[in-house]
Amino acid sequence: MTAIAYPFLRPGPDRISAGPWLVTRDGEPCVFADGHLDHFDYSTNLEAVRHFKVDVEGVAADTGLKADEIRLLCVVTFGTGGRRLQRARRIVTREVIQAGREAAVLALAIDGREVSELFVLTTEIILLSSGTVRRRVSPVTTGARLWRDEFRAAVEPLGARFPMEAVSFATVFPTGHGDALWYLDWSPQTLHHDFATSVRLLINLDRPAFVEAVQQADEVTLRMLMCSVTTQMVRSAIDLDHFPLDQAEASPSSVSAVIEAWVEQAFPGQSAEAVRTLAQHDPSRFELAIGSLFAGEFGNE
């Protein structure tokens, strides 16, 4: 058990009345099973609403401040991009809380195209003004966080290899490539980076049949897609003199570690140099081995 000593007084938990987030899609409530939203469509938007109330007088009593002087700010932050690290975060709504203005309805829209793997709604109570009356251990610094909670919702299965995003290639690549099906956003020069946050598979929204096949987890489509992606990453890595990275440099979740695991699985017991030689002199056998990596992982083989 870890005890946390805060540098200032904080309000008791009963001073904040925060209702659950109600998330809807096309007006219908979304059902989250164990924090997971099934059949998430990246081309649709979600609406999220939460009722929020602060007992300002109680907060003032708990923190040694004067109720009619303190001003608080309720801030909601939207984050997305991976279970270990959020790739993007931004404030989506804020409401001033003070005496006579203690309740708020927090409402926001979530653009499905912004979501990757999961999204997190973080609600915080921030001190805007402490007023003139205070105790020695009262919070006085503007921006001091008095309360916080999180709502997490995964939209991709646990263990998914690739964070995916559906984007319009006509918008992302305005000078061409609008007919491509997918694009792997990564760099072989960042092997030491975290895989989940530095590798992104972009699916072309302008090709709706392909997007639907991916969303419906069509076995053939997913196997061909993942084999192509894996081949690209393995081939790029083994051409580097410094692959695989030293274990002191690469964490188990790094790009290098993931690719190294694929190499070991496809070419057991072989060195990176031996795999490089195979790729150069017998590319068909090289791709055949990688093509066998995902047998049984999609569909009901």
Overall description:
This protein has 301 residues and is α+β, with helices and mostly antiparallel strands. It is 25% helix and 29% strand. It contains eight helices and 14 strands. The protein has helices at residues 56-63, 169-172, 195-198, 208-215, 219-238, 255-266, 272-281, 283-291, and strands at 16-18, 22-25, 28-29, 32-33, 36-37, 45-54, 71-80, 88-98, 103-111, 118-129, 145-154, 164-167, 182-185, 200-204. Strands 1, 2, 3, 6 and 9 form a five-stranded antiparallel beta sheet that branches. A four-stranded antiparallel beta sheet has the order 8-7-10-11, with no helix packed on it. Strands 12-14-13 form a three-stranded mixed beta sheet. Helix 7 (272-281) packs across helix 8 (283-291). The chain is elongated, with a radius of gyration of 25 Å.
| Shape descriptor | elongated
Write down how many β-strands occur, each being a DSSP E stretch of 2 or more residues: 14
Please, how many helices?
Answer: 8
Radius of gyration: 25 Å
Please indicate the percent range of residues in DSSP E strands (runs of 2 or more). Answer: 25-35%
Q: Write down the overall mean pLDDT.
A: 85
Helix content: 10-25%
Please outline the major beta sheet.
5 strands, antiparallel
* Terminal CA distance: 45 Å
Provide the low-confidence segments as ranges: none
